[in-house]
Amino acid sequence: MDLSQQLKDIIEQHKHTEATDFDYLIGEGGYIPSNKEILTDIIAALVQGKNVLLKGPTGSGKTKLAETLSSLFNQPLFSVNCSVDLDAESFVGFKTIDYQEGKQIIDFVPGPLVQAMTHGHFLYIDEINMAKPETLPIINGVLDYRRQITNPLTNEVIKAKEGFNVIAAINEGYIGTTRLNEALKNRFIIIDVPYLQGEQLKTLIQENTELKDDQLMSQFVQLSNDLIEASQQGKVSEDAASIRALLDACDLSSMIPPKRAILRSIIDKLEDDREKEVVRNLADTLFE
Asked: Which residue has the higher pLDDT, 61 or 287?
């Protein structure tokens, strides 16, 4: 039985319950969902060959989730990091001059999209809403029932091998992002990925940082909760509440005082002095 069928069977067995337990499949260091229905629903979409769009604040674990799914399905993960400079070659590949039997030839070097399609692997498109709107239509045919693309550099029609899937991620509301058009959005199953909090966050700290002090871990969990609340109230940006930055602070706190770790990992990344002061005050209430 292949892994996709195994995952289908697990979902079928648990579809009338509130959550499906994938802990024994994920293993230590994998993504810890705030709600296990999130993981169940994504897996259900992927085993049916659907594209998944992960939507959530920065540092909420979208990339870690994509890596965990890649591991769960035992599929290599090719990645594209979007920006305003992204062009077709960043997806498809590029031509280069090579030598074969002493003769100069024009060779094509496949990009992450072509590699993922031809090998039947996963493609992860990070911050897809950072790409220029005119760049993304090139992948429309890849994302719908056709599962194919005409390589603009070679005119070759590339059809995706079975197992190929697309996982994309967006951070909404950031400078430089654009709204996804409906044609593109409709090609995805959309999953909201919230910040981890409470015991799930504490488990994440235990499994992914050098911090071993239980009391300090609990204090960092509370700091994260306070930062998320401050972000929701508009007092700080989402960057201040990033779980990624919090984990860096936890790592450093295993070797230096916590407030200095927070300064290096969170506060000094912020541009606004008022935001820095909010984070500093929250840290002062929790750490000596």
From this structure: 287
Mean pLDDT in residue range 51-71: 87
Task: Using the structure block, give the residue that is written with the tokens 């935001």.
Answer: 275
Q: Of 3.40.50.300, 3.40.50.720, 3.20.20.450, 3.20.20.70, which CATH number belongs to 3-192? A: 3.40.50.300
Q: Can you tell me which residue has the tokens 């919090």?
A: 246
In this structure, what token pair is assigned to residue 71? 């591991």
Taking alpha carbons only, the member of 255, 260, 262, 280 closest to residue 220 is 262
Burial letters 18-53, b for 16+ CB under 10 A, else e:
eebebeebbeeebbbbbebebbbbbbbbbbeeebbb
What are the structure tokens assigned to 253, written together? 């706190």
Residue 239 phi/psi, 5-degree rounding, is -60, -35
pTM above threshold 0.70: yes
Q: At what angle do helices 243-253 and 198-208 cross, to 10 degrees?
A: 50
| 41 vs 21: CA distance, rounded Å | 12
